[in-house]
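Q: Given only this backbone (389 positions), what sequence would you predict?
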């Protein structure tokens, strides 16, 4: 058996882990023993446990329970906890997803112990090192042995940073391999789409009419923690809801919910609370989220994952960031980068209202990224073991 240790911690990583865990269950259960370590970075029921239950992911074998803290303390707590488990279990590979502090901690702990790191979602770059995620991604990529990039842009970024497209096995931290494999989140969107239709009652519960609401998410620290940026976003929401008589449905990340009171002017906060067209709710489950995305008129978000899901479900989106790692979505005209500029957000909405957006070429793979990843891990493992004999 190949012994994997998968590290998850934040909501999107748990969702991404569902794809690999499904591939293992369906096709490779005799080959892999996958131990799941949850750092505890996200811990609310609707930010963590709900996804294990709903997406049929095995319960984590270990939960470090680090919780929320400053970057340094949170990451340090994770490194300490992960290192201890790695010393006990000595897995063949550590699997890491995305770009959160849990990713960084797993990368540092494993690489220092000489355990091969597999990075899923490698090569993505915003070229903005003010984002904590950009630092996490770069650090993780550069201590990884197998780097799986969802897009060609990601592969090109890695090549620019010195990774070779032509490395030969045996792969090591000093001779890593890069693979263009498609997006495990696309695997998930395809797989869970029909299930969302049959199981989610979110539209009826909130009286949302398909095609007649905007779905929005906000959680990026640069938006939530800066009063002027957060105010600009919510002023734009107010204006769009009023001018276009459309509902804006916002399942808000707990970070954002906590900061609304602190960072919005009291008058704006009161106006939003009184505006029945702006519906702020708790974070929703993944199946609910998929149904919301599939039936939205348009999506406004600063989330990496939600931007892509908008594209998977052929919905135009407005991205509340100055740049994105998912450049293909912008290049194909399916999303507009509005950052937090109120007039850009409003103009983008009006543009999409008057424009049929139907350019969604398949740039995120074919829905089989997780199977491809499993096959490459097996090849790498077998090659190393043959060499040893
Ligand atoms: C983290 C990731 C970000 C990712 C996001 C996905 C880092 C640096 N950031 O951001 O890349 O896009 O997860 O959602 O790793 N909180 C709760 N309950 C929870 C979790 C968080 O109330 O279950 C609140 C706490 O007040 C906490 C704040 O949210 O301080 C931020 O949580 P944290 O995990 O530090 O960062 P995210 O903003 O969630
Ligand atoms: N998501 C969810 N419920 C919500 C909001 C988001 O299930 O209330 C899902 C979303 O569909 C996507 C993932 O969470 O798959 C994105 O996570 P998030 O926006 O927290 O982080 P990011 O992708 O920006 O790192």
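A: Predicted residues:
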């Amino acid at each position: 058996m190949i012994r994997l240790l998968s590290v998850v911690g934040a909501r999107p990583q748990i969702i991404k882990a569902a794809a690999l865990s499904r591939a293992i269950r369906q096709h490779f259960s005799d080959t892999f023993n996958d131990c799941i370590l949850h750092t505890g970075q996200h811990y609310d029921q609707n930010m963590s446990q709900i996804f294990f239950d709903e997406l049929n992911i095995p319960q984590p074998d270990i939960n470090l329970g680090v919780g929320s803290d400053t970057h340094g303390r949170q990451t340090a707590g994770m490194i300490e906890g992960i290192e201890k488990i790695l010393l006990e279990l000595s897995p063949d590979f550590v699997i890491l997803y995305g770009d959160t502090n849990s990713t960084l901690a797993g990368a540092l702990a494993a690489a220092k112990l000489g355990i091969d790191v597999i990075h899923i979602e490698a090569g993505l770059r915003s070229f903005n090192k003010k984002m904590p995620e950009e630092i996490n991604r770069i650090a993780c990529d550069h201590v990884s042995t197998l780097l799986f990039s969802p897009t060609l842009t990601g592969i090109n970024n890695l090549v620019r940073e010195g990774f070779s497209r032509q490395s030969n096995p045996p792969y090591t931290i000093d001779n890593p391999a890069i693979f263009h494999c498609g997006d495990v989140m696309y695997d998930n969107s395809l797989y869970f789409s029909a299930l969302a239709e049959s199981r989610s009652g979110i539209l009826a519960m909130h009286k949302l009419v398909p095609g007649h609401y905007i779905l929005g998410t906000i959680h990026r620290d640069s938006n939530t923690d800066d009063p002027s940026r957060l105010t600009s976003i919510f002023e734009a929401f107010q204006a769009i809801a009023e001018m276009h008589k459309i509902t804006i449905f916002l399942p808000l990340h707990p970070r954002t919910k906590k900061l609304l009171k602190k960072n919005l002017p009291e008058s704006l906060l009161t106006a939003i609370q009184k505006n029945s067209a702006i519906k702020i709710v708790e974070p929703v489950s993944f199946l609910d989220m998929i149904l919301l995305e599939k039936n939205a008129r348009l999506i406004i978000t600063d989330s990496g994952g939600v931007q892509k899901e908008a594209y998977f479900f052929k919905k135009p989106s407005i991205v509340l960031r100055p740049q994105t790692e998912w450049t293909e979505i912008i290049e194909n005209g399916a999303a507009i980068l509005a950052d937090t500029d109120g007039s850009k957000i409003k103009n983008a909405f009006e543009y999409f209202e008057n424009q049929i957006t139907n350019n969604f070429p398949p740039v995120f793979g074919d829905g089989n990224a997780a199977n491809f990843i499993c096959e490459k891990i097996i090849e790498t493992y077998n090659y190393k073991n043959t060499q040893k004999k």
